[in-house]
Design a protein that fits this description.
The complex is a heterodimer of chains A (270) and B (325).
Chain A: H1 11-18, E1 26-30, E2 33-41, E3 47-55, H2 63-69, E4 89-91, E5 98-99, H3 102-123, H4 139-149, H5 170-180, E6 190-194, H6 202-210, E7 215-222, E8 229-237, H7 240-250, E9 254-255, E10 258-259, E11 261-264
Antiparallel strand pairs in A: 1-2, 2-3, 6-8, 6-11, 7-8, 9-10
Chain B: E1 4-6, E2 13-18, E3 24-29, E4 35-38, E5 44-47, E6 55-60, E7 66-71, E8 75-80, E9 86-91, E10 96-101, E11 107-112, E12 120-126, E13 141-145, E14 150-155, E15 161-166, E16 171-175, E17 180-185, E18 192-197, E19 203-208, E20 212-217, E21 223-228, E22 233-238, E23 244-249, E24 268-272, E25 278-282, E26 289-294, E27 300-305, E28 310-314, H1 317-321
Antiparallel strand pairs in B: 1-28, 2-3, 3-4, 4-5, 6-7, 7-8, 8-9, 10-11, 11-12, 12-13, 14-15, 15-16, 16-17, 18-19, 19-20, 20-21, 22-23, 23-24, 24-25, 26-27, 27-28
Classes of the chains: A alpha+beta (270), B mainly beta (325).
Chain lengths: 270, 325
């Protein structure tokens, strides 16, 4: 019965072992190229052949440089052969300079502006006419003026923080509550948009509200698994009058074959 | 052109410098052996063995015969460039942060750190008389720096002045005949990491931790231009042939592990010298760039990084054909 020790290695390895020592490295110089061939073992103990081809070029240089070229190597390179030592000198992958063309950037900006213009066409009342001709055009200003003259709408709009995507550490939440109270916070300018289509994205939403006023943040509810919109979103405007205008304009507005429902963001039921 | 990658150091590169003709490239690193390379093919000519600490600075005189290095082992050494043997080793009271040969190569300056109860000091030595017996008492001039320590240094015009950049962002011009301060400016708000003269020496570009690089007039220390980035700038160099400035930098070494190389923070940034606008960037290192410089012919440049590699990159035609609009 053969002992396990007898089975030393597979026949493939033995063939390798039979060949013993590595062949000596060679250097051939032909046609202005130096070809260096080396043999070594790689990580899997397989013999590999490394062939490096160097191009030999001649350059006319000032005398001092030519003289320095003949200097003997010293220090840790003392035993290096003439020419680059592959241990210390490597040729890296080619990298290309990336030019930042200001022209392209400007073009890109123009495109974005065009898009906004196109959206503006039917944004206000979803009619198929230019926004300049929209019968509801004046209402933005009117409503915002109305909002200012009206007594403050019962605010009591609580923190949206837990719903908005950003994580806010508990101690910050507390300081907000303690510091500013319930009113006069950003959340008072928050609106809830519902009956959104599944396919809506953040950028669509942004385009939708951009016209009305500056917003500080927005949150589009998405299904955890599918990543599709769950049908509602929150937008925090910087100014309360913009939020009011958004409700005025967007509530009942047709978007992607659905009629949007826009209202003030309600307090969360704790 | 494919870049050459020079792997001669075991630790991060602290400073790299070309000699005047541009055929040799000197690199110093936090390991103890400064290296010298042929810049054309990346062949290593030798190493200067003898320091026992991190080597912070390196400079070569215009004849490429003498090399000066300053180290954390509290010595500054002068070397024979050709043979790699030390000519002199000067003991200091603390580690040597900067060292420079004067334009003539007759004098050299080095500065020491404020550490271990020692003040920061600038020393001027005459290197013509240098031999193994030279010690720190033999300096021709000693300037104690009582404010913030010197972190970068250059010789001014006609070897009559030196310009120092400080840890607090101050830039000071010193008169070497009197050893007194002539002028000081505070355009930078944080540490000056590097200062490099333009080809004719009339201007110099600074690299600061405050994320900007600035161009100064060498005589009046007037700030001429500011190049703004979003990262600390470790090194900056002015092209000798074109109106370009290249900046290299990245975060502090301690913050690097939190950054992907893909974020582009380790690229070299090319700015237009006059319009102060970035027009190109070039990838390479996978750590911050600690030192970089243009080849004296302006057709290639070299960078030394925290990753321990020195990269020599020749410019493609696209760089020379690029027209700034």
């Amino acid at each position: 019965m053969p002992a396990i020790d007898d089975i030393k290695s597979s026949w493939a390895d033995e063939v390798e072992l039979d060949q013993g020592e590595l062949p000596a490295p060679s250097e051939i110089i032909e046609n202005g190229h130096k070809i260096v061939t080396e043999y070594k073992y790689n990580n899997d103990d397989k013999k590999i052949k490394v062939v490096r081809t160097y191009k030999i070029t001649k350059r006319a240089v000032p005398k001092v440089i030519a003289e320095r070229k003949t200097w003997a190597k010293f220090g840790d390179s003392e035993h290096d052969k003439p020419g680059p030592n592959s241990h210390t000198t490597m040729v890296a992958e080619d990298v290309y300079m990336q030019f930042l063309s200001s022209k392209e950037e400007e073009k890109a900006n123009d495109n974005i502006l065009d898009q906004i213009k196109n959206i503006g066409k039917c944004r206000i009342c979803s009619g198929e006419h230019w926004s300049a001709h929209c019968p509801f055009k004046g209402t933005v200003m009117d409503t915002s003026k109305l909002m200012e003259s009206k007594p403050a709408v019962p605010a009591a709009v609580p923190a949206e923080t837990s719903k908005s995507g950003k994580y806010i550490p508990p101690f910050l939440k507390d300081s907000q509550k303690g510091g500013t109270g319930m009113r006069g916070r950003d959340d008072t300018a928050a609106i809830r948009i519902s009956n959104l289509s599944e396919s809506i994205t953040e950028s669509d939403l942004e385009e939708l509200v951009k016209k009305i006023g500056q917003h500080s943040k927005m949150y589009l509810a998405r299904d955890k698994n599918t990543g599709l919109c769950k049908g509602f979103a929150y937008v925090h405007f910087k100014q309360r009058k913009d939020a009011a205008a958004a409700i005025e304009i967007l509530n009942g507005h047709g978007y992607d074959h659905l009629i949007l429902n826009v209202e003030w963001s309600k307090p969360q039921n704790n | 052109m494919k870049p050459l990658m020079l792997q001669g150091h075991e630790r991060s590169i602290t400073q790299i410098k070309y000699n005047r003709d541009g055929d040799l490239l000197f690199s110093a690193s936090k390991d103890q052996k400064p290296n010298v390379w042929y810049s054309l093919n990346g062949e290593r000519l030798g190493t200067y063995n003898g320091h026992n600490g991190a080597v912070w600075c390196v400079d070569v005189d215009w004849t490429s015969t003498k090399l000066i290095t300053g180290s954390g082992d509290m010595t500054t050494k002068l070397w024979d460039v050709q043979h790699g043997v030390p000519l002199a080793s000067i003991k200091t009271a603390s580690s040597v942060r900067t060292c420079n040969f004067s334009y003539s190569g007759n004098q050299a300056a080095y500065s020491t750190d404020r550490a271990m109860g020692q003040n920061c000091e600038i020393f001027i030595i005459d290197v013509r008389t240098v031999d193994a017996s030279l010690s720190h008492q033999d300096s021709t001039l000693r300037i104690p720096v009582l404010q913030s320590k010197v972190t970068a240094m250059q010789w001014g015009t006609l070897d009559e002045t030196i310009i120092t950049g400080h840890e607090n962002g101050q830039i000071t011009l010193w008169d070497l005949r009197t050893g007194k301060e002539i002028n000081a400016v505070n355009d930078h708000t944080s540490q000056i990491n590097d200062m490099q003269l333009s080809k004719d020496g009339t201007m110099f570009v600074t690299a600061s931790k405050d994320t900007t690089a600035k161009l100064f007039d060498s005589d009046s220390l007037m700030c001429l231009k500011t190049y703004k980035t979003e990262r600390p700038v470790n090194s900056a160099s002015v092209s000798p042939i074109l109106d370009h400035v290249v900046l290299g930098g990245g975060q502090d070494a301690m913050e690097v592990t939190t950054t992907s190389a893909r974020a582009g923070k380790f690229d070299s940034l090319f700015f237009h010298l006059i319009y102060e606008e970035e027009f190109a960037r070039l990838k390479g290192h996978f750590g911050p760039i600690n030192s970089l410089c243009f080849h004296p012919d302006g057709r290639s440049y070299a960078t030394g990084g925290e990753d321990g590699f020195v990269r020599v990159q020749a410019f493609d035609n696209s760089y020379f054909e690029y027209v700034f609009e």
